[in-house]
Amino acid sequence: MPAGLSGPGVGLPFPQNLFPSELQNAPQDASSNQLGLAPGDIFVIPAGEWYIGLGMYCVLQFLDPVTNTWYIASGSALNRGMQFVSSDGFTARVANLTGCVVSASVVNGGTSYVQATTTITAIGGFATGVALPTFLPIVGGALKISGGTLTANGAGYGVPPIVMIPPPPPAQVNANGVGGIQAAAIALIASGTVSSISMINQGAGYPTAPIAVIVPSPFDPNLATGITNATVTFTLGSSGIIMGALVTNNGGPLPNGSLGSITLSVGGAGTSGSLTANVLQTVVSGTLTSAGTGYGTGGVAFQTFGGNPVTGIGNSPANELIAWLPRMANVAVTAASLSVAAPATVYDGGLFQAAPGIAASTGLTTGGTPPTTIAGLTAVMGSAYDIAVIQPTP
User: Is pTM, for the whole model, over 0.90?
Assistant: First the structure.
């Protein structure tokens, strides 16, 4: 049996499986605490309980049992500390996906699409020999965005109840043959009754409207005095409309500075469908386009803003800017280098799913006096190598 770490400087237990273990589709063996991951590299976390350090640009992902695709855990962009992970050896992984496509936003769902013939293809941008990302479109089967119809408003709620919506059937038993995306909604209350249901995620791929259940919050202080449950009925819409696109393979990284060169082409019987690829990215370099004046000896720092996924038609929390919060970059130019075309120093490139805006900060001026003219910077977005740390729990 492998032994846990017993003292400073002791590495992970040596691999227990015969090499190469991947011949049997087994997870990787780990014999080092540090994992160097190039852009596009992925490491499945072995079975067991671990402390994971994601470095500066890696993300933690879980295999979504509904869509069977890898999902970036919320907060991965900001959390650079150690995370506790209990892994079965197959459904959790550390990935350096900088420069890679991580999601697709449906800008226009189009009309008259048929699941069996609809395709999404990545075009342009990639270097020769680099694997292209692959996508699975989901046509129709979304819940009405206006929310469900309340058949009973309930009574006695002290806090909003929880709306439980089952997922669509998996591909094996779904009429569309590909499965779907689970819907999500919240309940709003007024005077102790449910006043409305608001959709957070319309979902996709439901063959029939699911039967949802409204459950009182376990922390509702009125549980002891009695609550009359509300009930809701959902209906389907969006027939023939592309309501979601799952990334089934992230592919390789795009070249630095060319992340916006990729386009997604929609094929099939329908018309007017349009999607945008969201690429996980970081600031890799910057060049002054305007040196500004009045910065004194402090130099100039730059701050980023934005960088969320492209807003789509509302079928994903990420599209609604709920599930992804970018980490801002830390970029500066010293006073000695304040001249046009001077390179910036990137201390932390941040982590984004779209190119952020970047602006000069006035916080480093001499004596607190605002600069006379503001400096400008052009940032190059791309990918970066990273080191993740994996440590077994005691």
Answer: no
